[in-house]
Amino acid sequence: MKRVSIKDVAREAGVSATTVSYVLNKKPNETISAETSQRVLQAVEKLHYVPNLNARSLSSRRTNLIGVVIPQTEPGKEFMFSNPFYGELLSSIEYNARKNGYHLLLTGTREDQSYLSIAQTRSVDGIIIVGTYPSRSLDDLRNIGVPIVLVDSYVTDEAFHTIGIEDKSGAREAVRYLIQMGHERIAFVSGSIRENGVNNKRYQGYCEAMSEAGLTVFQEDLYLGDVSFEYGMEAAQQYMDRGALQTAAFATADVLAVGMLKKLLQNGIKVPEDISIVGFDDVSMAQMCYPSLTTVHQDISEKGKEAVACILKAIEAPGKERMEHILPLTMVERDSVCKRRKDHD
Length: 345
What we know:
The chain is of the alpha/beta class. It is 41% helix and 18% strand. It has 13 helices and twelve strands. It has a six-stranded parallel sheet, with helices on one face. Helix 5 (84-99) links the parallel strand 1 and strand 2. The longest helix has 17 residues, at 300-316. The chain is elongated and about 80 Å long. The protein starts with 5 loop residues before the first helix and ends in a 13-residue tail after the last strand. The mean pLDDT is 88.
């Protein structure tokens, strides 16, 4: 079957191909009336016209592709979708990019893989990188000629735009909440802690809240592995093996907290009666699990929307001053926390 062309649409609508292009690309033109625009759109629908993206990119020097990179920060893990946070974030990025006429090129990277090699072998108009650390690979991207937005990264470089949250203050509020509920021995459950990383910021918030309350953090209170449901279950086993020393736990991701919940309940340990648990992110599973999870809420959908808005602004206005957007956090109280019993020692 012959592909419908823009000339076919123009012929059907009784206008020029240039007019069709203006209407489809939503470019303002005072000579195009609403009636003409409607005629063009009806012709597009009738003929089932699909724009030729390759031809469009040749004429505009744009591909209408946004690269999304999720670095593999923990060696050996099939990491990208094991945490539902990434699924929710990517769904938002894809939806908001598509609404604006863009498509995604999604890739992961090994820890030792250069971002530059990915950028140079893919024709993209901009790149969104999620959860990266300062590195030589990131340094190499400063002068590649396409805008870059870093999501959940503590890289402070004028070459990169950033979207994030106040991880440290969010963790601090979560632990303060547990302390207000009477808990003094609080476990910290997390992936690996690296300098300038999200987990490190959340660890700092945990330590600050404990210090403010005059409470000591013992080595046995730290459960460090990777950010996964499986490690949440493993941390719960470690908690039992260590003698159930803590009356509460702060997990740096909901997926960890839900893993803990399952393993504890399987072993007859009641949540929140025996141990209270607070998570971080407020992914959809936080409401679905039993008991439902008290957690630090961040608007993951809004984070994806802001990342796309930022990259599109940077594509339209190259050289624009560095943009930084910090999204708010709130505590969501559900069923996984209760006041500590006085006789619980």
